Amino acid sequence: MQGWAQQAPLQVGLSLTANAYSGDYTEPATAFQRVYPGGHFSVQKENGQALRVSLTGGFGGFSDQYEGRFPPLPQGVDPPTFVATRFVYGDLRLTYRFFPGGKLQPYVSAGAGLIVFAPRDAEGRRLLIQSDTRLEGETYNTVIPQLPASVGLRYRLHPILRVGLGYTYRFVPTDYLDNTGQAGTRAGFDALHALDIGLDFILGTPPDPR
Length: 210
Known about the structure:
Layout: H1 2-7, E1 10-22, E2 36-45, E3 51-65, E4 82-97, E5 104-120, E6 143-158, E7 161-171, E8 191-203
Antiparallel strand pairs: 1-2, 1-8, 2-3, 3-4, 4-5, 5-6, 6-7, 7-8
């Protein structure tokens, strides 16, 4: 078993993602209508087992225009009505495949990692350092933990090639992906959502799917 584990080939995944966010700038009429492109990659051993560990990472962004009215704010506090945020992330995940030997492989995965984000206004200025856009005393970190949970399907086109489609909900313990916290109209943390479509390549001799 030890010798086989050392010889297990790698599975490398490359995906395009469509990213959306929910937060203080999200309005019910436009929720999930605005999606923005990104990329995602993953690396794991293809050992034929149902449960696997993978290293994943990626990048993306979102922007939103707030059309509503902010609640009354102290003089000198002026939140922007437009925000654009870019982010990069990395995490370690456990993935469970329901039919690891089949051509069609539904899966679920969950993990933990870090995300780095940078909100900017319409002029491209970093909102983190624009303290007048938030209430007094509001500060936040732009490197934070993140917990992704995914569901999806993969289809084996060839012993060394698979195509996949998935959805990821990314929990982030911050209300500042859009730079707006206490001045916002939506309580609770912000969140990220992503749809991905991509290809997985097996680098090496794959295990016999039978």
